[in-house]
Each structure stands twice: as C-alpha cells, then as structure tokens.
Amino acid sequence: MAEEVLHAYIAAIRVEHRELNELMRAVRHAASEGARSNWSTDSGQRFVAAATELQRHLLDHLRQEEDQGALDEALSFAPRFHAEVRRLAGEHPGLAGDLREILVTARAALRNPADWGVIAVETESFLQRLSAHETAENRVLQEAFDTDLELGG
User: What is the pLDDT of residue 9?
Assistant: First the structure.
C-alpha cells in the first residue's frame, strides 16, 4: 500500500472508530439518564433512539470491516495476527445479535417498563464487550500499521 494511501486508510479508520465510540457513549448516557428518571417514557424513547443509531452504525461498521477488509489489510502487513483476526471476526455475529436483542427488549419495555432494569444491565455488559472487541481490533491495526490510531483511552 503506497504511503499516501496508507495514511488516508488509517485516517478513515480513525474517523470510523471515533464515531462508533461516540455512539457507544450516547447509549451509555441514555441508559444512565433513563435510570435516573426511573425510565420515563421519554427516557425510554431516547434510549431506543440511541441504541437504534448504534445498531445502524455497528452493522455498517462490521460490514465495512468484513467487505473492505481493514483487518485483512492488517494481516498483509502482520500475518502473525491471523488467529486474533479470525477470533475477532467470529465475534461480529454475536455482537450484532446481542444489540438486536437489547433493542427488541427495549422496544417492548416502552409498553412494560418493568423490564428496563434488565435492559440497563444487559446494555452495560454489551457495551463492555463491544469496547473490549474494539480495543483488540485497534491493537491489531495499530501494531500491523505501526501507527497510533489516536483514539484515546
């Protein structure tokens, strides 16, 4: 990959991962606000909206990783990550499915508010798994491309 193309590629990865992180923060914030308001109808709707936006973005993000091959491209630079890349790719369906289930339950909770406590716990668990997944992907990309993606903590 030519140097300019590699820099543009890395810049696109940075933007994509920052957007995903921002949406994850928005979902966490919506869940926190929902809990503080005892899951009012408005807070429940805000949570569903934030989680729906995260789902849309996550599905696009995962599709891009699989179709455009950021991790596969990383393997061309650092084949030693083959097992890690396959493991990470194998997590994609579970992550997408977990978020889908949270949204199904959250939409139902708009009519049955008793379910919000479970949703909040499941959401935090999901966000921690997604964050760990993204951290592992970022580590592979940073090491393979010998760069800092500058994504912060």
Answer: 74
SS3 112: coil
Mark 125-143 as b/e (b = at least 16 C-beta within 10 Å): ebbeebeebbeebbebbbe
* Cβ atoms of residues 53 and 23 within 8 Å: yes
d(CA 11, CA 138): 13
What are the structural domains, with CATH classification, of the chain? Answer: 3-145 (1.20.120)
HSE-up of residue 147 (Cα within 13 Å, Cβ side): 16
Measured over the CA atoms of residue 137, residue 141, residue 144 and residue 149, the dihedral's sign is negative
Task: Tell me which of 44 and 152 has the higher pLDDT.
Answer: 44
pLDDT of residue 152: 54
Average pLDDT score, the chain? 88
**DSSP type of residue 39:** S
Pick 72 or 81 by higher pLDDT. 81
